[in-house]
Design goal:
Length: 222
């Protein structure tokens, strides 16, 4: 099955470069481009891509609001992978809240870019290592003391589900979790589905936010 990708970026060289790199992959096809957030929302509705590569800073409508509109309109059917030049981008947390499935730095290699598209298309969250560190710091700064009403909800999870949730919060994919816990990947997917259902969460990104906000996972040094 071919993964349909749309690229939204105001820089022509970025759009063209990513298009060439991704079209060289046998399982990925770039079906369209957009030069700003407004065009990204309109073209996504027209083209129905599986994944949108979204620049975080664009004219007319930025990547964050475009992501919010896309994920709401598509009800999660379209996955958004946000591209950024800065590993300390101040909008990382806000974009995840808006529904982005992950982040990737624009200087990623062709292999990293293609793999990121595959991971996000499969329903996994993806965060570049440097951005994960930034996100953890932001969680720590914003949340402070764990929120009791949310923390009480952790009790609905089994011991294994709690373990899986903590690994999701560390940015691990289903495959990585399966390898670490010596489980079948399908078993991990089942655990993830039950976690989201029990906690009333939309996706893995919300699950990661939940894990930090409840204090289930605390970053080292905090």
């Amino acid at each position: 099955m071919t993964i349909r990708v749309m690229i939204a970026d105001d820089q022509m060289l970025v759009r063209q470069g990513f298009t060439v790199l991704l079209n060289a992959e046998p399982d990925i096809e770039v079906v369209g481009q957009a030069v700003n957030g407004l065009e990204a929302v309109d073209r996504a509705a027209e083209l129905a891509p599986d994944v949108v590569l979204m620049d975080i800073r664009m004219p007319e409508l930025g990547g964050i609001e475009a992501t919010r509109r896309l994920t709401r309109a598509a009800d999660g059917a379209v996955k958004v992978l946000v591209l950024t030049t800065f590993d300390l981008d101040e909008y990382v947390y806000e974009a995840l809240r808006a529904g982005a499935s992950g982040f990737l730095l624009k200087d990623a290699s062709a292999e990293e870019l293609a793999q990121a598209v595959r991971v996000v298309a499969a329903g996994d969250a993806l965060l570049a290592p440097n951005i994960t560190k930034r996100l953890i710091a932001e969680f720590s700064r914003m949340t402070g003391t764990p929120r009791a009403p949310l923390k009480d909800r952790v009790g609905a999870l089994t011991e294994r589900e709690t373990e899986v949730l903590s690994l999701i919060a560390q940015g691990l994919s289903n495959g990585e979790i399966a390898e670490g816990l010596v489980l079948a990947e399908q078993t991990v997917k089942t655990h993830v589905g039950r976690i989201l259902m029990k906690l009333g969460l939309r996706d893995r990104t919300q699950a990661a936010v939940f894990a930090y906000e409840t204090g289930l996972v605390r970053p080292a040094g905090y």
